[in-house]
């Protein structure tokens, strides 16, 4: 008998289903099931994944949804045609609008309104009076499209229950249909399904009770097994295929229509686009369009006309034009920068006259996919652009894509451990022994290192189930800026729900789903460096009288490139990471194109394709550059014969192997996914044979293919690298010539970038910028520039109140407004005049903001705050004065407080502002460290190649790039600067707790020097976090504070002093588990 399983729950019914669509459809194919009805709860979030699984297996997808009603039982609904599908998506949008994020509130009356064209299956539990009422309503709402589900519950009276349900259905003229109510694809997933039930209900496996499934039968079964289980209901079994045949709707019927808001009245989309292109051309080329560019534009416009993409370009153009009209910095990037049309319209900044663009990387007839234009905006002003989009296109036609938040290693361990009842300290120990994004669970050796027993059954089960849970969706979030805009109502295509942020809404599909259905997506992304640049330009204009912007920055400035070659790029864009800094002295950029290569070369693709070292050797003249043919030289001449960019790979295929532009783009896409699909193999023969046919040797052709294969999905498009290089150069130029403005702007744009404020401040001081502390009478919310006496050119940076942890921006605004006419002369004066809560005054005192102008030390200021009292009412003023004179206790004694030690002050600086302008913490420990033969980081980084030594410092950054094959890169810092450390995989596994848990670390190892690039290759690692515990007792003898930047976490835990309030501890914080009164807690930034 033919059979379709119509009640299948995937793991997109979050924390209910335990299997993916791929697993369900693959199992259905193996069992001979003809169709699957995916009915996730109140959601179509996983339906596109199900469509792709259906395409891959040939098992038909029946689109459906389970509606959990407020005034009735659950109903499974399936649209029979396109119109019915739209009614279903509108119904879900209605329920989600009422329920808010992640909730759906629907009633039977709502279903009745939208029921036309929908097949409904009631899912009853017992054949009671409630079921009878529901069946009568089902008959009224759905007519011959109404059914009732017969499912086994594995109870003693199951057969009687099914018999009574069948009789009741006959009485109300509602047909029966068999369903298996599937929650997982095979029996072994039962345990995981129990665990996700515990996670959803926030209980443990020991206390979940009847919330978990009573039996393990909720897996896919072949038709023979279903016949054996339901021998008395052959008609109900046959109706599964009857329903599947009636539901002929497919998601492939959804047709996307572009919005038309940006079209010029009286013109069509293509003529509107051409109108704007010719109108904007004189702005880009005031002296006239060069013939070469004109030819490119005409070619692109012809292709855009053929593909009917003009509305898309117009939409993006309208968004960018609005942003520029409001003075919001923006720039397009990605493959869109290959387009001359995008350059003319001001969407991108890569000039086709000076760059060799490949439009087929962006738009291709063979690819038949909508283009994807990413535009970056200032991250603090992007919301203005987003709200303009909603206002222009309305909430009916515009929404953000979703993102699927999936389980990673630490999250899976944490949730599964709680569900299985592991002690909290054991869960923390397990989690601390894992790298955040690792796909590997903790091994037996790691468990023993953590003093845990690998033979513990519950612990072993936790690791096994956490492994299964990894990759499963946890919930939906909102995309940073991926908009779907439509011509008609968007909720005709996909359900929409309110976002957690006000005035935003999100569709249920992510960017991959949208791309699979060929919908248009516009990426309105945020880039912190654009915010930084905008603020820096404003500071430069206000304080130095110079007007500069991204378009008129001096090009090819020798001083800027000299700074870049020294790797003096902390805080700049793209070239500030440790890997980039290590590459800069080797590549030695001298031109803009060098910078383009610099941005692209530190990527897994070029590294895995063995392209970095050949390029560097050829650049340094150590290896000859040989081109077998002039055609290859024309393609790879600029990159010395090495295909560093995606466009290079495509051009090699086109020029050397005879690929068309579309075929070359398909090659690029297949390389991006070859590890999962094997699709690249079908291009190998064509590429190799094509190159051999054109005169290349088979060995050279094979080597070329292996390079491109290693390239994978990680290579940058050249145009994308060029777009980023523009911002990288601009940020470097501003840092080089306006270090004071750059420092202030960078701090004012936080959070962003690779480094914390402490390191930014330390770097600025190294460049001669005077940094002034937070001051109650001089600081504003943002950092500001103040004149330096005797030097009109230079300015000092006054730190802003934004750095004071716990202080609200509104309170800072009140303080600034209150002192406009007259500065504060005491704590009491400040409190009374500005009207901020006493708690905010305490935050300022703890940040030492009363010291610069009022000369009040921390404890003096805190003592003064304790004495603050409200003024008595006028009626009682005389009585209050009389009491003060006669009662000695009312008179405030003159108290001389013992001030904090220098070490204690440093701790408090870090705890309350994230930096110190006093001495570096390690400086207080230097004598102790020197006694143990531990040298400074500065001495270590200047040591000769091969020298063995030991150094120590605060751990700032931990990195384990995916291309590094398990190698961990650490950056530590002391009072002399940073040191770069390499930890090999075996040492990392042996000393995992030290690497991941230390605030301060000592490293014994060997110096490796290659030119100007220096690393310490670790051989032994020691946790010195305990040494920080004694820091509060230290006094240092130094004249002027020369604090360095480093990254410090929020607060000092465990202090019994009532004045030292412990801030909230966050999971990422790495701290010393010590009960000392003052413990320095260092927050490291971990990158993967």
From TrEMBL:
Return the InterPro entries for the record.
DNA_pol3_alpha_NTPase_dom, DNA_pol3_finger, DnaE2, DnaE2/DnaE/PolC, DNAPol_HHH, NA-bd_OB_tRNA, PHP_dom, Pol/His_phosphatase_N
SMART domains, sorted:
POLIIIAc
The protein's superkingdom reads Bacteria
Q: Which GO terms describe its molecular function?
A: 3'-5' exonuclease activity; DNA-directed DNA polymerase activity; nucleic acid binding
Q: Which Gene3D superfamilies match?
A: 1.10.150.870, Metal-dependent hydrolases (3.20.20.140)
Stretch list, region Disordered: 1041-1065
Reaction catalysed by this chain? DNA(n) + a 2'-deoxyribonucleoside 5'-triphosphate = DNA(n+1) + diphosphate
Span-the-membrane segments of this chain are none
List cellular component terms (GO): cytoplasm
EC number in record: 2.7.7.7
GO BP annotation list:
DNA repair; DNA replication; SOS response
Write out the entry's keywords from A to Z: Cytoplasm, DNA damage, DNA repair, DNA replication, DNA-directed DNA polymerase, Nucleotidyltransferase, Transferase
Keyword Cytoplasm found: yes
Q: Where in the cell is it found?
A: Cytoplasm
- The record places domain Polymerase/histidinol phosphatase N-terminal at 4-71
Biological function: DNA polymerase involved in damage-induced mutagenesis and translesion synthesis (TLS). It is not the major replicative DNA polymerase.
Looking up PANTHER family in the UniProt record yields: DNA POLYMERASE III SUBUNIT ALPHA, ERROR-PRONE DNA POLYMERASE
Family per similarity comment: Belongs to the DNA polymerase type-C family. DnaE2 subfamily.
Protein name as it appears in the record: Error-prone DNA polymerase
Species per Swiss-Prot/TrEMBL record: Rhizobium leguminosarum
